């Protein structure tokens, strides 16, 4: 990964807009650039584009959509922006939060109406940090459906996606204008292509173990469940180009990846009154602050595991989520007619689980103070049949990256823009602040799609001679 002088670039072909990465951000950027009138080429390292997008649940938070209005849900960009800001404790870029929140509803409707992505609102529980129902997902709630729909849309617009093409080097003028990109093929051959504008959509650095250990040591020993091909290239090039970098310690963790299956267990079971215990049958945290910060809580427990304890009433809203169905069909959901039977099934102390459940039930009635300051008020006691899933904590993707302005243009430390580089999704600084606790549920695909669209539109306008 290097940034080289333009004099060394040898290329015959040039494209107006070049996008690196064919996940949700890159594909959304490509669709928007094409709509803005620019020809566009996407470079993707894998033989078949997947990215973290395919591994995800595919849920995108958006405010003020017709899907919400149809269910009578009052939402607005200001409410979404306030929720994101609160979760990040105000330690992020307010202008980007506002721009993303404003673009969220129109982006989801644009993806549906112009590009055939089918959405349905998730009902039955609120995700951590959200004031209202606003998670939009594909029919089976999978990232695979989202990625496939975006690829089909790109196909309909005749957007070229060159696969098995790993971008390795950028050629840049002294002012930071990138004029060409070199990429390598699986057989080791290298090619170079010129560009008028560049969109960095190659996500974060979760796939570079060394970089994770250096920037985020607390999560380095957890499993990485994101796309292994995301090796921090945007950060590496950005640093050499003189771009500002921020929040490299920020990431999306997840505190309930089903063991040994690898599917995330939906947080809805906890949001509606379930809880987590360790192998001693004891709770250890406030489970509903968010799933990201819960990753380190879970891997700090004996054996780095915990059990999500819930019942069939809490299970109901997540039936139909492909991830849950997979865990279920593989035998990962243990069920029992009584708590003591459940404890025996899980191999955890019967008395401890009974005490934990009794204590939670007192908190449900508003009696006593929860040691971890979680409110259980208004939730009903768990009922037979009781359910449990064994989980661990994992890293899903990193949230730090190149700093961008509201038009998704990459900025220098003095906030002046680099001439022709844009970024979004996991490649750009996220909305989460400096650490793990600021990750707002769904912020990954929210920034991938909204900033992808903004980056593509801005890049398209720039090459057409307009203002980015
Ligand atoms: C299990 C799981 C569940 C998740 N669920 C959700 C969810 O429901 N909602 C949500 O908002 N977020 C979720 N996330 C996070 C979300 O998946 C990511 O934030 C989002 O997909 C990032 O999109 P992206 O386009 O930036 O990156 P990606 O989708 O990872 O795409 C980046 C692409 O760039 C390619 N690439 C990298 N480097 C190069 C290079 N040098 N040259 C060429 N190509 C390159 C990669 O191969 C990849 O295809 C989840 C993550 C995981 C792991």
Structure description:
The protein is of the alpha/beta class. It folds into two domains: 312 residues, FAD/NAD(P)-binding domain (3-Layer(bba) Sandwich); 144 residues, Succinate dehydrogenase/fumarate reductase flavoprotein, catalytic domain (Flavocytochrome C3, Chain A, domain 1). The chain contains 15 helices and 20 strands. Strands 1, 2, 3, 7, 8, 9, 10, 19 and 20 form a nine-stranded mixed sheet that branches. Strands 11, 13, 14, 15, 16 and 17 form a six-stranded mixed sheet that branches. Strand 8 and strand 9 form a beta hairpin. It is elongated. The relative contact order is 0.20. The model has no long low-confidence stretch (mean pLDDT 97). It binds flavin-adenine dinucleotide (FAD). Flavin-adenine dinucleotide (FAD) binds next to helix 1, helix 2, strand 8, strand 17 and helix 15. Flavin-adenine dinucleotide binds next to helix 1, helix 2, strand 8, strand 17 and helix 15.
State the helicity in percent bands. 25-40%
Task: Provide the gyration radius in Å.
Answer: 23 Å
Question: What is the CATH-assigned architecture of the largest domain?
Answer: 3-Layer(bba) Sandwich
Structural class: alpha/beta
Q: How would a crystallographer describe the biggest sheet?
A: 9 strands, mixed
Shape: elongated
CATH level-four homologous superfamily name of the largest domain: FAD/NAD(P)-binding domain
CATH topology-level fold name of the largest domain: FAD/NAD(P)-binding domain
Mean pLDDT across all residues, rounded? 97
Question: Using DSSP, what is the number of strands?
Answer: 20
**Beta fraction:** 15-25%
Given the structure, what is the number of helices? 15
Span between termini: 27 Å
CATH class placement of the largest domain: Alpha Beta
Ions and ligands = flavin-adenine dinucleotide
> Which spans have pLDDT < 50 for at least 5 consecutive residues?
none
How many domains would you count in the coordinates?
2
